[in-house]
Amino acid sequence: xxxxxxxxxxxxxIPDKEVEDEFEEESQPEEKDQTEETGDTEDIDEENAxxxxxxxxxxxxxxxxxxxxxxxxxxxxTPKKEKHGKDEEKKEKPKKRxxxxxDFKYIVRLSNSDVDGEKNVIYGLSNVRGIGVHMASFIAxxxxxxxxxxxxxxxxxQVTKLQEAIDNISKNAPGWMLNHRKDYETGKNFHLISTDxxxxxxxxxxxxxxxxxxxxxxxxxxxxxxxxxxRANNRKGLALGVSKKREVAEPTK
Length: 253
Fold this sequence. Notes:
The chain is mainly α. It has a domain at about 105-175: Orthogonal Bundle (Helicase, Ruva Protein, domain 3), CATH 1.10.8.50. The chain contains 8 helices and 2 strands. The chain has helices at about 15-75, 85-90, 120-125, 135-145, 155-165, 170, 195-210, 215-220; strands at about 105-110, 115. The chain has a two-stranded antiparallel sheet with strand order 1-2. The longest helix is centred in the first third of the chain and has 61 residues, at about 15-75. It starts with 15 loop residues before the first helix and ends in a 32-residue tail after the last helix.
């Protein structure tokens, strides 16, 4: 039991100076911790700045290397030609003519056609319409001219021989080599050259139209003559579709 008579014990009062000292001591370590944290952050910022600087230096150096490489390639590589279209690419450069002497003939006239003098006799004669390589070789052999000699190197006498042989092909050549056999009017075999081919073809088509033969009728109608089909191909004329009948309006009374 507590006696009421005993006086209450008074708590000892702490002077103000001691309280302030204790408060200062407690606050000092916090300040130290803050200063340490700020120091650490400064160190981290410095390290990050150094890393960023090194990265920037690496990027700049790599850009300089990339810029220098194409220059080195350009020095070794040849410049590419610019393309101005397919038409210009396909155009071939004109062939340079070689000087073959003053007596060389660059153009030879045979059967109303110009023959290139730089070609051989066989291929030069084949430029004449109605004469192929096979017939040209026959003409060269009959006249005694070298097949592989240039047309421009031929003398005037040799050119005249070739012209005479061309004019007399139907007499000298065998019948199976001629291009017009069993003529409609005479029944003979002969060889046509240059403009005579078109004239004879026109005349024979007109004869077929006059006698009303099947081939003549097909020529008149503009249809294929040699039995070709016309369901899918050779469909000439206007494209006719399904036409609907127009209803005629009844006149009003």
